[in-house]
Amino acid sequence: MARIDVIGCDAGAPDTMAAPQRQLLSCCDCLLAPRRVLEQLQPRPDTQEVHGMTPLDAALGCLSQRHRQGKHCVVLTSGDPLWFGLGRLLLQLFPSEDLVFHPAATSMQQLFARLKRPWQDATWVSLHGRDADCLVAPLRRHPSALVVLTDPCQGGPADVVAILRSTQTINRYDLWLAERLGHSTERLRQVQPDALPTDVDPLSLMVLLRRPNPRVAPLPWFGLEDGIWRQHEDHPGLMTKREVRVLLLAELDLPPSGVMWDLGAGVGSVGLEAMRLRPQLELHAVERRVGAVPLIRRNACTVGCDPQRLHVHGASALAVLHKLPDPDRVLIGGGGDRRTVLEQTAARLKPGGRIVLPLATLEAFASVQRQLKDGGLEVHSLQVQISRGCPVGGHTRLQPLNPVFIVSGRFPQRDPPAN
């Protein structure tokens, strides 16, 4: 049976190839290789047929013809043929049983070797033939390392930076450019989003490495960006987004002073921003997730909250409610036994106090509304559908966030006793 060996190689081929692959080169009947490799080869002048890879259609036509004639063919390609390489196309043209793949290190492997960083936690996105907004979904998961296979035609470093800004993650990542990996002219350099180089080689990768601590610029008075908050490693991205946070704070109608409960606090973003707006507020943040207490305290330090007025409880809400002072304001997030938590909270709420709940489902929305009304609270409800502008090829596309229902319950002020 005629066989096609598809051999991955680096920029030093054929000298850097392993002996078995070099043997295949010397004994095959037909060889297809990139022009830069052909210049280094010494084919058998009498029997071996050698072709370049351009134009590709003509090269593949010749390969198909020689394969039908029963010739042993070898195809040289960069890196791993089955990772954004020629392998997928060859599998469409030839029976899989006739193909044998010999992978070399991918550009992604070479990149992390140069960075001297483990890469089992890395994810990747290719911009070849795709709009840059395909970066949005992986960035929402806050990966520790994200490799971007840039496209010189429509997805370069400037497009990556624009997406980072639109997703409010620009402060969370260090940016590196890797150009012509494996070549004698390779270059690896860290770049700044506000001063991108103009001499970027078309053969390049961009890697985003998450910082242990987000870069914090001067903070606005209100509406802190998502990227400044440290997050739980096991559930990155599960935090109240900036636009929803702003609405929740408006619904809470924060008093100048008093007690606020943040139940199911997550990373603490809503409660901590409430403390920034009302420095005399005493916050009790309750979150049962492992590691929540130090995480919320570190976020409090980042945004400049008074540690003396912050109390973080690493437990479920029902386990600690009896220990907390009666609240003026309550935010209830997270999961758990919402009905019981809401019942106990309403019983403790001070006159004129408010309870606010962000909800994700219609069923929870209907249930909470009913429970608040039955408890004698004045109810206000709204549904929030936010889309963020996302740059795409010089234009703007809207990227929707998950819709949220917000239900607020206000405990009316009690009339003063009659004389």
UniProtKB/TrEMBL annotation:
Protein name as catalogued: Cobalt-precorrin-7 (C5)-methyltransferase
Example GO biological process: cobalamin biosynthetic process
Keywords from the UniProt entry: Cobalamin biosynthesis, Methyltransferase, S-adenosyl-L-methionine, Transferase
Domain Tetrapyrrole methylase: start-end pairs: 6-190
Domain Methyltransferase small: 247-306
Known EC number: 2.1.1.196, 2.1.1.289
InterPro entries linked to this entry: 4pyrrol_Mease, 4pyrrol_Methylase_sf, 4pyrrole_Mease_sub1, 4pyrrole_Mease_sub2, CbiE, Cbl_synth_CobL, Cbl_synth_MTase_CbiT, Cobalamin_biosynth_MTase
Keyword S-adenosyl-L-methionine appears in the UniProt entry: yes
